[in-house]
Design goal:
Strand order of the largest sheet: 3-4-2-1-5-6-7-11-8
Radius of gyration: 21 Å
Distance between the termini: 60 Å
CATH architecture of the largest domain: 3-Layer(aba) Sandwich
Number of helices: 6
């Protein structure tokens, strides 16, 4: 098996190393990771600057690269240009901090896995529900290996990615695994106004998570109650129910408006 490992915390992140160690016996491991912390970059790509690539030395990998770009850049350039052969799986993580609910839209970790899906590979994103330096990644890494093995044995729809969030607990403290939907995740966004040495105004974003009631089948509820959450995410954002509604009513109306507007131009 050929596995591409990536992340958004950078090539020196502990979670990346833990993931490689957990997966190393499953096949050839390739790593393509950002040159620095790239959290919160979402599905951004580098268009107007060159993307620099340097070799990455790491034990137990077939080959690795440090990429001067976003997490999505890492997957895109690795699968398009750097890898000597197609990969069987893309694994992104282990992120230092959760990626729950609407966080997935901002997450570089999840976006890197999403790019794997776009490039045609089964993909998964893995996050640990802690920002503390005290927690290790062992449980999350071992669970990642189990899910990867399940994907190899049973397959997965290549149009989805698996978003995995693991509580920062020892394995005996975890209540189980839940396949969950995305929950609600909002922040009390605070923008602190500051002045630079030249007297120019700039802003520093902060704020914490807003406490909100969560449905019991959501990923947020699962992790908050000490369950590992797995959320299948599809990249097709089309609302098919609304398509049918528009086709039966609004489409005809909009077409009439379009023809009317053209007659008056």
């Amino acid at each position: 098996m050929k596995i591409l490992v990536t992340n958004d915390d950078g090539a020196q992140a502990r979670g990346l190393f833990a993931l490689v160690q957990a997966l190393k016996d499953m096949g050839d491991i390739y790593v393509a990771a950002p040159d620095r912390q790239r959290s919160g970059t979402g599905h951004s790509i580098t268009v107007f600057e060159p993307i620099r690539v340097m070799p990455l030395k790491m034990p137990d990998i077939k080959q690795g690269w440090i990429i001067g770009g976003t997490p999505v850049d890492c997957v895109k350039i690795a699968m398009n240009r750097l890898l000597p052969e197609p990969v069987d799986l893309v694994v992104s993580g282990i992120n230092h901090g959760p990626n729950l609910g609407t966080d997935v839209l901002y997450s570089g970790t999840v976006s890197a896995a999403a790019e794997g899906v776009i490039m045609g590979a089964p993909s998964m994103a893995v996050s640990l529900n802690s920002f503390s330096e005290e927690h290790d990644f062992h449980t999350a890494a071992e669970f990642s290996r189990q899910v990867a093995q399940l994907i190899f044995e049973q397959g997965i729809d290549r149009s989805i990615l698996l978003n995995i969030n693991v509580p920062a607990l020892n394995v005996e403290e975890i209540k189980g695994v839940r396949v969950s939907k995305l929950g609600v995740r909002n922040y009390d966004n605070l923008f602190e106004e500051r002045l630079d040495p030249r007297g120019n105004t700039y802003y520093w974003m902060g704020g914490g998570i807003m406490e909100e009631e969560q449905e019991e089948d959501s990923d947020v509820y699962a992790v908050e109650n000490n369950y590992i959450s797995i959320t299948p995410i599809q990249l097709d954002l089309t609302d098919y129910e609304l398509i049918n509604k528009f086709r039966s009513s609004s489409e005809r109306y909009l077409n009439r408006l379009l023809k009317k507007d053209f007659r008056h131009t």
